[in-house]
Specification:
heterotrimer; A alpha+beta; B alpha+beta; C alpha+beta; A: alpha+beta; Enolase-like, domain 1; five-stranded antiparallel sheet; four-stranded antiparallel sheet; 14 strands; 24% strand; C: alpha+beta; Ubiquitin-like (UB roll); DNA polymerase, domain 1; 5 helices; 14% strand
């Protein structure tokens, strides 16, 4: 096993294009557990957590967040997505948040990754770079199965991008504790009032992060009828129907953390609460 | 809020809140716990534990583990100098499981090796054949 | 491999195997046994240190990736016989029983008060959410944090 600290982005891309057995290490909150328990001994580890090229965060209508941005940085008010900030706050603990990164969450592609439902709801794109160039892949197309995605071996996730969708967004998560908990179910709701779009992302409820197109259409129709910029109190029936449609979009299984039936139940509850919460946010 | 003074003299015994003698070294990280002990040339231990709640041990094979470089000893209950049991209220717990394992995590074999990595690997190279008892109905 | 890093204000060198964590290097190579190894997976916080000023679990930092960086452990807080105010507060509040979790809590508390000298109750709980204690039930630990955050506490002893 060898360990190399990457000097810069070009150094990383050189490594990735010249060898097929490179394991990237950023925050280490995933890989180090396997190393500590002797479950993995990767041939080559390339430490990329100090690269300035991955630490960018720009907002000017379009948000561009580097893969090296940690969850702690995502807690800032102006991070470019209130739902992302809420999701980051549910991750682990201060120690974990200081280390874990957006890029790690994306590239690990766990169905339980907390930022991922937000990226789906924002219709975010994953930005990949290699020696041969750069490409963008919609997040919903990037992750294909649990822990599987379309990143090629010579590519690095350098960040994610999305249209700044305003403040009417939220993220919710159900778990057994208030901290240090892997989601039993997660839900992100984005209402982009300016662009007249509703996005819903479901986490831990299927083999990938799912969208809920019928729930989105249902909510969008109500906004369309009442006006996207008006603040209104939705009826209980509307909230319940939205929750029902959110739950219906899930494809959960029974596993160690919960049953499929429970996941459907909590998604319906979270869906109704999420819509009630963002309805009044301008 | 009033704060306790930093230096306190014990005026008597009865009614005094005595400062805890081991607290200062513990808060400074200077207190030596078992896992903080270290000596030149020391060996490191690892324990093979039962993954089953209730099973009969048919066979334990530690030959491969014993042959690993750096592994100095692998012990099963056959290698213990005594079959005496221990316990807090009642001496009914075996040191290493003999014919039956009775809880998930019960020690089955011990490894001593030159480094912790080898010790852990040696527990993985140990093999046991077990036959699980039927589980009780859930209650 | 040979590592060079800043530890508690001084340059240190250490041997490390490629798979080893910073925690292993601090304890077994540099003789800094204060940080503890309990869960090996970043859940208990007993290995909490400051890496480039940020609170992290040393068991989740690959030693090789810590090359050239600044590490502060619990051993950095006291000055000889004089305890850091946070340490003294833990002693006075009765927040130390077996003490295995204590170094981690002390480093986490010191990091909290450095960034937020007057934390609310909720902020204290959030800041310590990465540290687990099996003995105390957390009551005295929270008291210790409030005590060390109180105005004027520690003015007579060294301040950080």
């Amino acid at each position: 096993m060898s360990v190399v600290v990457a000097r810069d982005l070009d150094d990383v891309l050189d490594h990735l294009s010249s060898a097929t057995d490179v394991t990237l290490l950023a925050g280490g909150t995933d890989l180090m557990v396997d190393l500590n328990f002797g479950r993995k001994r990767p041939q080559r580890v390339l430490a990329i957590d100090r690269l300035p090229e991955l630490a960018h965060l720009e907002r000017n209508g379009r948000v561009r967040m580097g893969a090296g941005v940690t969850y702690t940085r995502m807690l800032a008010d102006d991070v470019g997505s209130p739902a992302l900030r809420e999701a980051a706050r549910t991750v682990g603990s201060p120690q974990i948040r200081n280390a874990g990164t957006l890029g790690g969450n994306i590239a690990t592609s766990s169905p339980a990754g907390d930022t991922l439902p937000v990226l789906a709801a924002l219709d975010a794109a994953v930005v990949l770079r290699s020696k041969s160039g750069e490409r963008r892949v919609r997040f919903t197309e990037f992750m294909t199965a649990p822990k599987k995605n379309v990143r090629r071996a010579d590519e690095l996730v350098i960040g994610a991008e999305w249209d700044d969708a305003g403040r009417a967004q939220t993220f919710m998560k159900v778990g057994t504790r208030n901290a240090m908990v892997i989601a039993v179910a997660g839900l992100a709701l984005v209402v982009d009032r300016a662009r007249r779009r509703v996005g819903v992302g479901l986490g831990s409820c299927g083999p990938t992060i799912l969208r809920a197109p019928q729930a989105e259409a249902f909510a969008a129709a109500i906004f369309e009828a009442h006006g996207w910029v008006r603040r209104l109190t939705p009826s209980d029936a509307e909230l319940a129907e939205f929750g029902r449609l959110v739950a219906a979009a899930a494809r959960p299984i029974d596993d160690v953390r919960g049953t499929a039936a429970y996941r459907r139940h909590v998604l319906a509850v979270m869906g109704a609460r999420a819509l009630a919460r963002v309805w009044s946010i301008e | 809020m009033t704060l306790a003074p930093t230096k306190r003299k014990l005026r008597g015994i009865v009614g005094e809140s005595a400062p805890r003698a081991d607290a200062p070294p513990k808060v400074k990280g200077e207190f030596t716990y078992g896992s903080d002990l270290s000596r030149e040339g020391m060996l490191y231990g690892a324990t093979l534990r039962s993954p089953h709640a209730h099973a009969r041990i048919l066979r334990i094979d530690v030959a491969r583990a014993r042959q690993m470089p750096g592994v100095r000893a692998v012990m099963t209950s056959d290698d213990l100098p005594t079959r005496e049991k221990f316990g807090l209220m009642r001496a009914d717990q075996p040191v290493l499981a003999t014919r039956v394992v009775r809880y998930v995590g019960e020690p089955v074999a011990l490894v001593a090796a030159d480094d912790p990595e080898q010790a852990r690997l040696a527990t993985r190279r140990s093999r046991s054949n077990t036959s699980c008892f039927p589980r009780s109905p859930t209650w | 491999m040979r590592l060079k890093l800043q530890v508690n204000g001084g340059e240190r060198e250490a041997e490390a195997r490629e798979h080893e964590s910073l925690l292993t290097v601090l304890r077994e190579r540099l003789g800094l046994w204060g940080s503890k190894n309990a869960c090996e997976q970043g859940e208990c916080g007993s290995c909490s240190v400051l890496l480039d000023g940020q609170l992290v679990c040393a068991c989740l930092v690959l030693a090789g990736a810590a090359e050239g960086r600044d590490v502060r452990t619990v051993e950095d807080l006291a000055e000889g016989e004089h305890m850091h105010p946070v340490q003294r507060a833990f002693v006075e509040a009765g927040a130390v029983q077996c003490g295995f979790c204590t170094p981690g809590f002390i480093v986490a508390t010191a990091a909290l008060l450095r960034d937020n000298p007057e934390p609310s109750e909720a902020e204290i709980r959030e800041a310590l959410s990465g540290n687990i204690c099996r003995c105390t039930g957390y009551g005295k630990i929270l008291e210790a944090v409030r005590r060390s955050a109180a105005k004027g506490y520690g003015d007579d002893a060294r301040s950080d």
